[in-house]
Amino acid sequence: MEHELLGTIKLASDIKKLNNDQLRRLCAELRDEIIDKVSETGGHLASNLGAVELTVALHYVFDSPNEPIIWDVGHQCYAHKILTGRNIAGIRTENGLSGFPKSAESEHDLFVAGHASTSISAALGIAEAKKINGDENSVIAVVGDGACSGGMIYEALNNAGRSGTNLVVVLNDNEMSISPNVGAMAKYLAKIRSKEGYFRFKDNIEHTLLKIPAIGKGIFAVLRSIKTFFKDMFYSSNTFEHFGFTYLGPADGHDIEMLIRTLRRAQSIKRPVLVHINTIKGKGYAPAEEKPSKFHGVAPFYKENGQLKKESEYSFSSAFGKTLCKLAEKDDKICAITAAMTDGTGLREFSEKYPSRFFDVGIAEEHAMTFAAGLAAGGMKPVFAVYSTFLQRAYDQVLHDASIEPKHVVIGIDRAGIVGGDGETHQGTFDVPILTSIPGITVYSPSDYNELEKDFEKAFSAEGVQAIRYPRGKEKIVPENFVKNYGDFDYFENKIDCLIVTYGRLFSEAVFASEETGASVLKIGKIFPVEHELIEIAKKYNFVFFFEESVEFGSIAEHFGSMLFESGFEGKYIKRCVSGFVSHMDAEKALKLHGLDRESMINAVKEALK
To answer: What span, in angstroms and rounded, lies between the C-alpha atoms of 587 and 605?
Structure first.
């Protein structure tokens, strides 16, 4: 498709000059551009295709950045990036755009977003700041219905409804988060979603009446007051109105004219408004419409048919799912919990084999953790499967609800360490400091699939909170002469006075560095608490190196070093950890950038020996 219109858009304000036919053509061109670029790099596709008309309408009605648009999670922001002058070629790759809103990229991204249910809180804060400064411009929060399973949304709605700010919340309802939505709110939205025909009829009547010269506005005002009177007499208002919002909708999220009219009305009300729109995830691209979960976050694909250029590989997530099914077959007390990530965490097979023991609680990590503690208190053996980046949200629940009075809860921490294209908001480099601050917790970090299975067997047979963290992707190759015993650690003694200490997938990098340099390797399996036996091994060396995919403060390297020096160690101890936030790039490049690849290990050892 020739992008004639898209090529003329240099500023977001340029679309205000287009007529309705041109706006529809622009939407088609945007969809084609998103499909074309995401097919090359991978990224979030279905959610972005569903939000194209909404994005165009938002920029047609509102004046970004003076009227900022705050995107929840950011899975829907690709069209927004394009319309605000950014080229999405190479998105989520090194030196390319972030896959999420990022204020360092553009003045049109006022707030970073990578975790769900935050947009209304952030937008309300910005709106209150505008109110204090006498700025009457609107602030817009775009939130998906999936995020409405997160409790933070309701905290924000409760606060915002009585704020008197010019806040417009757009609820983009596509009946999906990543997995299909679950819970009471999903059922409630399904109920009011069915009233779209009524809203269209009402909107058209209003639009027609307001066009009548002189008397149109008066007739409309009378009819509206009569409708409101009878509605208040015979019907209860919806949930959002109870929160204090003026509710508009549900509107067809792919009807550009209706969207523009509805958003203009919201803009004119000058108090908190919730605009409810219905969209189709993956709209305009058949493979994504048919399988929206598969195309939520997708690897590079052939846009002609939607086939992946490289089929999905067996991964640590897959191994976790297989392991859990195997263990659950033998033990009917094992349960699995996910926060809207059935496929992402490898739990699809478990959900089908053991539906009564599988719980998808929606995007609600805090609830999931305390729910797991409750299951444990009831005599079950729950495992909460969660990405490292999302476990951060449940720190208080791990500490307060699962650890103080110890509950036997197992946490399967997926995407631990550096993750690649998702960038700063999704890196799994903070769970180690978080978890190791909690008394009584045990943390494992397997380096291959067999070790992962054995770690879960240990975790289910132990007591208290047990955490197993494993990386994104597949296991790494290890030379045949490095045979692991799958205990709490493995020690491979070599010929020179240097020891490399590490765990997880970095073990592969370490053993290849060992072959090159002659350094010994100490691979930790149970990484916390740090066993004194490990310290006794390390004390024998004058040079000890610790390589770790974690931020330094609170890392295992820090714990290990503290114990090492307390034991009387007088040699040289070098820590190599992750420094700060890790930007979006290939995971292997990120490891090299932070000195965690085999070449960096080799250079560190050689430099020390000089």
So the answer is: 23
